[in-house]
Amino acid sequence: MLLIGSPPLDVRDLQVVLAIASAGSTAAASPTLNLTQSAVSRALSLAEERLGAPIFERTGRGLTPTPAGQRLIAGARPVLAQLAELVESARALAVAPTRLRIVCECYTAYRWLPSVLRRLHESYPKVDVTLAIEHTHDPVAALVAGEVDMALLTMARVRGRLRELPLFSDEVVFVVAASHPLAAQRSITARDLCEHLLISSHTPEAETRWFMTRLFGRRRPKLDFLRLPLTEAIVDAARAGMGIAVLSEWIASGYLDRTDLVAKRLSSAPLRRPWRLAFRDEVAGAAQRLASALERAAPHMYKGDARTRRTGDAALIRY
């Protein structure tokens, strides 16, 4: 009988590597892993020692995957998903159908999430996931209270005995009228954002802080915002030449089939917003399966597989 040898890396090593790849640094990955930054750094060093090769390069912008790291990251999530599916398929033979409720922190995800859940139910009929939109205003509180089982999060921090999985990122893009002076530029600069009116929805305070920090660091210039409650109103204001609409690529892509609007990326680097799946411990298996389905299905304006989305190598689709 052929016995398969034990690989040098285990499941926890892969989870650490994926969390760091998604977050960009050990400090940013520590809340996801429920570890201190020093513990994450030690775990990464141990994984690199076991692998026998560096997984990340330390640069001024954080941690960037090496070629070996890119290969490991590309294969890690399918391996974890297959393991979770193996365990759940074995359990499914003896358990009743699982009914779960999921909520999103940001309304932009509701644009495509229902179709993902439908396909998931077709593939795994014993896992039935429904949306709990009424808890969008405070998804973590609903998760802690047991009113939902999983939450798709961007900026909110989990508390209590909850677990998380890093997912993908969506890019924040800047939409202007084709007649706007910035339409001729290749990309948008931080200075452009200081000089023009920004049109957006009423975003949570945590997301506003993230936006300002990513753009300006500790320097916090005063920006002029026009806050509108409806996506159509935001887009129409940009179409009228009033300013720059700040939108998720998921939303913006639906309005770029006409020639009167153009989308621009941030010149310094793509402005990507990380997403995580938070869940209660008792639904860990179903959460792993859902995380795998979400990463494969999330729509993007940019070409590239999950690996290039995480490492920033995606190519722009022309529109």
Automatic annotation (TrEMBL):
UniProt lineage: Bacteria, Pseudomonadati, Myxococcota, Myxococcia, Myxococcales
Similarity comment: Belongs to the LysR transcriptional regulatory family.
Pfam families, per database record: HTH_1, LysR_substrate
Organism: Pendulispora brunnea
Transmembrane portions of the chain: none
SUPFAM superfamilies associated with the record: Periplasmic binding protein-like II (SSF53850), Winged helix' DNA-binding domain (SSF46785)
Keyword Electron transport: no
Origin superkingdom: Bacteria
Protein name: LysR family transcriptional regulator
Domain (HTH lysR-type) ranges: 9-66
Keywords: DNA-binding, Transcription, Transcription regulation
InterPro entries: LysR_HTH_N (IPR000847), LysR_subst-bd (IPR005119), WH-like_DNA-bd_sf (IPR036388), WH_DNA-bd_sf (IPR036390)
